[in-house]
Amino acid sequence: MQFEKCFLALAIAFTAATPSFSQYKEPEKKEKVEAFYPEVTFDSLQAKRMLAKGNAVIKGVAYTKPKTKLGYSAPLAPRIYANKMTVVLFPVTPYVEEWYNLRKDKENIRKRRFVYLSKDAYRHRLEAITNSDGEFTFPDMKPGKYFLQGLLDYTYKGTYNAYTGTGYNNYGGQTDYYQQKQYSKDFQDRIEEFVEVKEDGEIVKVNLH
C-alpha cells in the first residue's frame, strides 16, 4: 500500500513537470478588418506637378492641449508643443479629398478607423521635422491647397487622492484617510489642417493643432 502511494505521488509530480503537447491547437479568432480606399483614381502626374518647386513658404507651429475627462481639449490648458514630430504634407487632389471625407463619415465609426491612402498616394508627400517649440517649415512651395498632418505623442501627469483607510474614535465617529498620489497617462493626438498658398512667393503661417 505504501509503495502504491509513493508511485502515485511520483506519477503526479512527473505529469505536473512535463509540458503537455497537443496535435491540434485552436487558433484565436481575429477580428476581420476591412480596409477602405477612395474610389477616385489617384492622378500621380497631378500630384507631382503640385509638389514641384515654387517660391512660397509654409511656416507653422504644431501643438495640442490636454484632454478633459470627456475627451475634449481643455481650452484654458497650456499648449503641448510637438517636439521632433514629423509633419506630413499632401497635395489636395480629388483622391486626397475623398480620403479625408471617408475618414469623417459619421454614419460608420468603425469604417472611419480603417480608411487608407494607396501606396502611390502616400508616396507623393513632403515631410518636415518640428523643433522643440513645435515650429516647422515647408520651403519652395507652389500656389495650391495642401493637407498637413502629424501624430503628436505626449504624457499627461496629474495627482489624485487615494483612499488609505478609516480611523474610529471612542465616541463612534470615523475619519477617512487619503494619500495624494501621482499618475501619468500616454496619449497620441492626430493633428491636421488644410492650408492654401494663394500667391507665388508668399509666406503662409498655420497653426497645426
From TrEMBL:
Domain of life of the native organism: Bacteria
SUPFAM superfamilies: Hypothetical protein PA1324 (SSF117074)
Protein's UniProt name: Carboxypeptidase regulatory-like domain-containing protein
The species this protein was found in: Pedobacter psychrotolerans
